[in-house]
Fold these 3 entries.
Entry 1:
Amino acid sequence: MLKLAERVRRASRDQKGFTLVELLVVVAIIGILAAVMLPRLLGYTNQARVSRAMGDIASMRNVVEAWAANEGAGYYPAPDNSAAGGVGQVLQARGIKWTGGTDGVKDPWGTAYRYGTADVNGVANQAYLIQSAGPDKQFGTADDVWASSSTAPVQSGTPDVTPTTTVDSAS
């Protein structure tokens, strides 16, 4: 019995690492897990970007609505980045970096947000649209994220307001 115990102790002391087969099995398992999980994780990344764009647009929408109610006498800010009463000045005064320059706020895909107003019954600035071009970076497609004077942020291709004049948040 003593000899058997001594052999087991000696064998465990002589063992210095993993065999090549053990390492290959572990690498194969990690590769299979990565191949299965990667497509699922990429979908979550895109949804997170859409959610961020919706949040950004919701914040801008809240500022525009509050300004129209408090300071705009029922009119929405003009699509202008530099004039008083323009969307650039209104949003910047409330902490949103809408400059019209290279340092202006951009959507999660690196495209400038777009703001535009529309006339209603011949009266200017009675409706507005805030829009992100979405993942394909092209305005007017099905993946656009937008909000208007009558709709909370959504992702679809057809806004319910067609602006007569627009201005971008960045260049």
Entry 2:
Amino acid sequence: MKSFRDKIAAITGGGTGMGRALAEQLAAEGCHVAICDVSAENMAETRRLCEAKGTGVRVTTHVCDVSDERQMQAFRDALRAEHRTDCLHLLFNNAGIGGGGSVLVDDRAEWERTFGVCWYGVYYGTRTFLPLLVAAGGRDQREQENETRLETPHQLRLRVAFDHEWNLPSE
């Protein structure tokens, strides 16, 4: 993609950290952005920062727990309505949490919450938004699926850091 101008991006975990930085950079490049997060307050700050770029892009926020498939579908439906579109150009399954703990002594619920956000969040995001990504590219869904990698936010961060450190071309 040579230009982000007038494209539409969805970012999970857009309230802070890397998600906020992605939203800001995309907005600065003229890309319309839909973010979701569990914190409305954090997303309001992200939206303010994006709008401060002065590019006139649409920035929408959606309270959403990515570990809940129905909430991800509601995020998709809100994006379609608020951005008046049936396609999506960029999807950043960025939401992630630390956690887990000891398998021997800690509560299983902590592990399940971590897997819910860090694995199912990526899976639900990809599954939910893939038809909109295909619609934007005009390509066969099977072909798009073959090129879509399911990476947890931690894997993506490591790959991006490695590519940057070694000056490798990004994909």
Entry 3:
Amino acid sequence: MKHKKQVEKVIALFLIELLLFIPLYVSDVYAVKPTISNINVEESYDSAIVKWQTDVESNSFVDYGITSSIPLSKSSSVLSRNHELELFELSTGQKYYYQVRSCSGPDCRFSGLEDFKTLDAPAPSKITDLKEVSKTTNTVLIEWDESDSDYFGKYIIYRNDEKVGEVSTKS
């Protein structure tokens, strides 16, 4: 009788172990690494949108940088099959290296190392209505209508092909 109770205890422990650990074994066996396809980059002069697809719902990562060590990263934990991440504050006319990554649970897939180049910034529009406001022997105060270019950060003033000033406002 004592032997029968010990056998029942061993069987009970075995069944409990099966219930606890079989889902882990099964999930490991049936886990699917996402397959990455259709990688595309839409560049502008100061940003880029990286798009790709996966065959299973997964999260999104883009590792990027101006060297192949790709030290920067952008991510989204939203699970999707169609991925899109926008990279901001990029330098104009700069080559960037990048790699996309998607994970479904613990299983991740990486693309190869690729690169793109941001566009050169377009020339700003011409300033208009340049006028002298006042002048003295040593100075002149001028003003103008600002350029409508959104990335334009400063004005450099030349006189006879020589730089004489730099300002970040119009007067």
